[in-house]
Amino acid sequence: MENKYSLFHIEGGLGKHVLATAIAQCIKNNYPDRELIIVCAYPEIFLNLDFVDRVYRLGMTPYFYEDFIKGKDTMVFKHEPYFTDDHIHKRLHLLLNWCKLHNLKYDNEQPVLKFNVRQLQIAQGKWLREKPVMVIQTNGGPLQDQPTTYSWTRDIPYEVAQKIVDMFSEKYHIIQICRHEHNVLNGVEPVFESLSNMELFSILLASEKRLLIDSSLQHASAALGLKSTVLWVGTSPVVFGYGLHTNIVANLPNTVKLPDSYLFDYDFNGITHECPMFDNNIFNLDQIVESLQN
Q: What is this structure's pTM?
């Protein structure tokens, strides 16, 4: 009997790929008799997942049409959830919206990350420190091709992050995830060099506390079941967040015009003239500290 396939095509960033592991699981649960084939930008996220049968990197799909499409019984899941009404109007979490877009029955599937033995060994050797580890991610996004080192829509204001470090650095070894050496705080061990994605996520396994932003690490923490404190500036936990985390939303004034915004309010990179902040007092510092202490 000829094999039947489900093809799940994913585009976008690393965090979106981590969330997409839940969609992949949902596809497999809806169509268990079909082999699940993933085509994506970050295949390493899916390689260790037992419900995934084959993974291809975008642009590296030799003979794919003949192997999986031509004359084959293949269901194709290739829609972009970011451009649906429910996402643009912030009515549904991305996970639920993605399943709805593909007419999938959702049964509370959640993101999942799985490390193999060698990946765990490397993590234990690389991130072990004398004091308990606290991870703080101040900056997100790709290391290259980003116009500025600081994105006001997602990154933690430097002054806020430094106050948190000063409060916790005596008890904790603080590892800072940031985009560039210009973003490094005082009293931390910065990590801004390129790591493999699984190496990056393995930092979380060594951590006792985590202060994160809307970037891949908050998705990875959810996938690993690690409760974290997540700060939100120009993006919404309603769409991208998880109930596992303590989600703290910035208090932004609603006084700035958005002449260059089209379908979404704020650009991930943070368009300078649309920044609504006139100072960096956008978070309740006591709320952040209480969340981290608890």
A: 0.94
